[in-house]
Amino acid sequence: MASSPPANPEGLNFPPASPSPREPQPRCRAWPWRGVLVVLAAGLGCGDARAVAFRVPNQDARAVARGNAFTATADNPSAVYYNPAGLSFLEGTSWRASAYPIWLEVEHEAPGGGRVRTRDRLQGVAQLYVASASEQRPWAWGLGLYTPYGLGVLWPDEVPFRALGSKAELLYLALNPVVSWRPTSTLALAAGVSGDWGKVTLRQGLGPGPADQLSFSGTDFNLSATAGVMWRPWPQHSFGVAWRGPGGMTFDGEADFALGGARFRQDATWEVDLPQHVMGGWSFRPTPAWNIEVNVNWTDWDVVDTATLRLPDGAVPVAFDWRSGFMYAVGLTHTRPSGLALSAGYWYGEETIPDARYKPIVPDVALHVVSAGLGWRWGAWDLEAVYQVGIGPPRTVVGSEGGLADGRYTYLSHALSLAAGRKF
């Protein structure tokens, strides 16, 4: 057994632990606890770099093609996510599967020169939805399996800010059954429960050597709520509001410390709150062939204020101080008599993370996203193919913790969204 390191400024002691059998067993040294806590605080925010932090708004190809301006339309089974009340205006039983592969790159230019780019740029998420409704019944139901948060960022190990983190990945799955009720011909109300499972993986440098690092991996399961309202007072107009409730995750796992040839593992948990978000939209159909929608989305990032790392020797709260932010979206679809649908859209997201709390593993930028896609309807089948590009105007960070994250950040992404569905 290796001896425990001395007490640290946070009042935590590292207890005896079994070193890896592959590692030598030298005497331990003091561990940089504050650096560990700071990077873990940022680590949950491991979505692709953008203004929406670790939220993934792209949950169906048709919606992605319209810039995710879909809350007041929601006319396929992906309504489970975009607005479950839209299920009441469908007919029959149908399913829809969608995939969203994305190539993204973040570049950092240090104040004194030198540039570095992220690795493992290709990643993605997928979704599956089932829905059933009938004009003869006031009730409709749906089930969705999707990823409301996730993706990741991986920097090279030699980056100058490795003490703030070099890797963050979040796998997050939501299984969301919903029920929609249509009390009148023009109004529908819906609610559901989401069973959420998450796995987070984090890594940061602890010393000068490439093997000197901290890794953490943990999982958790939690419940949250969803709801929606859709009102169609006239054939040309539809209004929709959707809500995903707040939640919290306590990732239960293991922290692996390696420094100067010594290696220790400890049980650890990471507790963090997750935000609620609200999506609202208005859809206008000047003719049956055209659908134009505008959306406003709000995410309560203010709730991501303080998180807590718990180890056997104690717990330390760490400040996030993120800011709530808005997304603004507009989209349109033109459907040809042949069944071919042409869609285009745009959305913009505000910055949510202040310079003082900026971490390169959450390289948040204001983001402009443009998309276009084609949909085909042949009998009972629907197919969709969409291209999306995201551009973040360069953001210059000044005054980050220790100045380590200071510099100029640029963002570029290219994504496809592909979907197939069938009605029975």
Describe the model:
The protein is globular and about 70 Å long. 46% of the residues are buried. It starts with 32 loop residues before the first helix and ends with a strand. With 424 residues, the chain is mostly beta strands. The longest helix has 11 residues, at 33-43. The chain is built from three helices and 20 strands. Residues 1-50 have low confidence and may be disordered. Helices cover 5% and strands 54% of the residues.
Q: Layout of helices and strands, plus pairs?
A:
Elements: H1 33-43, H2 61-65, H3 79-82, E1 92-109, E2 115-117, E3 122-133, E4 139-146, E5 151-154, E6 167-181, E7 187-205, E8 213-234, E9 237-244, E10 247-259, E11 262-274, E12 277-284, E13 290-299, E14 306-311, E15 314-319, E16 325-335, E17 341-349, E18 367-378, E19 381-397, E20 407-423
Antiparallel strand pairs: 1-2, 1-3, 1-20, 3-4, 4-6, 5-6, 6-7, 7-8, 8-9, 8-10, 9-12, 10-11, 11-14, 12-13, 13-16, 14-15, 16-17, 17-18, 18-19, 19-20
Total beta strand runs = 20
- Fraction of residues in helices? under 10%
String of helices and strands:
HHHEEEEEEEEEEEEEEEEEEEE
* DSSP helical segment count: 3
Span between termini: 64 Å
Secondary-structure class: mainly beta
Unreliable spans are 1-50
Overall pLDDT, averaged? 85
User: What oligomeric arrangement do these chains adopt?
Assistant: single chain
- Largest sheet composition: 14 strands, antiparallel, barrel
Radius of gyration: 23 Å
Shape: globular
Strand content: over 45%
User: In what order do the strands lie side by side in the largest sheet?
Assistant: 1-3-4-6-7-8-9-12-13-16-17-18-19-20
